[in-house]
Amino acid sequence: MEITLTEENFESEVLKSNKGVLVDFWASWCGPCKMLAPVVEEFANEHPEIKVGKVNVDEQDELAQKYGIVSIPTVIYFEKGEVKKTSVGFVPKEALVELTK
Predict the structure, then answer these.
(1) Gap between the Cα atoms of 98 and 42, Å rounded
(2) SS3 label, residue 33
(3) What is the pTM of this model?
(4) For 77, which DSSP code?
(5) Are 37 and 46 in contact (CB under 8 A)?
(6) What 8-state DSSP symbol labels residue 68?
(7) How many angstroms separate the CA atoms of 83 and 44, rounded?
């Protein structure tokens, strides 16, 4: 299951989460983001032990700026409220699995 993340719920859903959180920063006009979306969804369905969230950078520009998002898609893995690993661009599901290890 994927969660829509906003400035309002980011702290509670990501920074205070008791499990790892994979966050996909994306935009509706971004081709590679559209390619990555089903990969992220599949990952979310196969890994219930990891929370998966999506941030629309056009709607949540403060979050995008805070985490230094300059190109999308960018996927960031958070653990205990801290950035652990980052991936930029389209990646296969295996790369998302590696990101969360």
Answers:
(1) 15
(2) helix
(3) 0.97
(4) E
(5) no
(6) T
(7) 19
- Give the integer Cα–Cα distance in Å for 91 and 20: 19
**Separation of alpha carbons 64 and 55, rounded Å:** 8
- Exposure string of 62-81, with b = 16+ CB inside 10 Å and e = fewer, is ebbeebebeebbbbbbbeee
Residues taking part in catalysis: 30, 33
The two three-digit tokens of residue 37, written as one number: 């979306």
Q: Tens-of-pLDDT digits for all 101 residues of the chain?
A: 899 999 999 999 999 999 999 999 999 999 999 999 999 999 999 999 999 999 999 999 999 999 999 999 999 999 999 999 999 999 999 999 999 99
From the number of C-beta atoms within 10 Å of its C-beta (0-12, 13-18, 19+), residue 21 rates as buried
Hey, what are 42's tokens?
Answer: 């599949």
